[in-house]
Amino acid sequence: ADAPVLHFDEFANDIIYSNLYFDVRVLPQELIPYAKLLSTLLGKLGTEKYSYGELDNALNIYTGGFYALNTSFLENKTDEKLLSKLVVSSKATADKTGKLFELIDEILNKSNFGDTLRLKELITREQARVDSDIKNNGLNYAMTRLNSYYLNSGKFNELVNGLEYYRFITSLSVNFNEKAADIRAKLSETARLLFA
Predict the structure, then answer these.
(1) CA 149 to CA 191: how far, in whole Å?
(2) At CA 76, angle to CA 66 and CA 150, rounded to 5?
(3) What is the pTM of this model?
């Protein structure tokens, strides 16, 4: 499919910065927390061509960084026009741009959600991170929860960064052995819908 491309020709010391935006609005609400989980997993799982260790080495050799996150924007600062996105950001020197986009394609379209041990490890790590963050930033979570009652942006933030996400990731972590097949299927479906 054709996708709009914004190109800024600015001096960047021969470094190419890439931000790819994927529309989270294509997902049913039940998969929105999986989009957040997916953003934490991208680049940390093996793929068809690379084991996790090989992928990590390739990202370190050919790129200056790779990460994904969920964010939202308000069109014309109007809450009714919420634009929720999964953003994949990366950078590389100009001579390594081809390899950068090859790696991005591999990560987005061929990540191995079937590696149960690695998946469990990453979900457990994510749950521990969120648990620690709640303990250190409880007021922020309370404000996110409060905003979820009356703002579309608040509801989205609650699903990807709030107490709802904490309950979601904790449930996956605690019940991973029983839910593993369902988790793999939902991650695959989320990736398919987002990156198609």
Answers:
(1) 28
(2) 85
(3) 0.93
